[in-house]
Design brief:
Radius of gyration: 17 Å
Distance between the termini: 56 Å
Helix content: over 70%
Strand content: under 5%
Shape: globular
Length: about 140
């Protein structure tokens, strides 16, 4: 019975987040299905909010971090652990800046960007189902 409740809860959360990302992408003027394809949605989201180059940098650091964590998980050398920690810090900074850019595009303040970084389970539905409409992205 506990497994059934857990599965139903997970399915509810999955459907809720499919609807959330579908709604966010329709607010961007994109097709809603683009929000539910895993890596593609991240690419489009970065393209709408920030830049493609930053997405590629984030993807690079993600794969390098995973590769280093797997490759060096069985070694006792401290330098490899520091390398993995450094890569994760860089990824955290990129994600934090991305959340602030997302809040800015939707017309929210920098404090909402901080909330978005630490509590995405609450803040992305606020962006999706609230009154916030994304502004046109400024090109530099």
């Amino acid at each position: 019975m506990k497994n059934f409740i857990f599965i139903v809860l997970c399915l509810f959360i999955l459907i809720f987040y499919i609807l959330t990302y579908w709604r966010i992408f329709t607010k961007f003027g994109r097709k809603g299905w683009e929000g539910i394809i895993p890596i593609y949605n991240r690419y489009i989201f970065f393209n709408e909010v920030w830049d493609k180059k930053v997405f590629l940098m984030d993807l690079f650091f993600t794969f390098i971090g995973i590769a280093f964590a797997i490759a060096f998980s069985y070694t006792e050398m401290f330098i490899y652990d520091l390398l993995v920690v450094f890569i994760n810090i860089v990824r955290f900074i990129i994600q934090f800046m991305f959340c602030n850019k997302t809040a800015d595009v939707f017309g929210k303040g920098k404090y909402f960007g901080i909330w978005l970084a630490f509590f995405p389970i609450i803040c992305y539905p606020i962006l999706a189902f609230g009154r916030a409409i994304p502004r046109e992205r400024r090109t530099v």
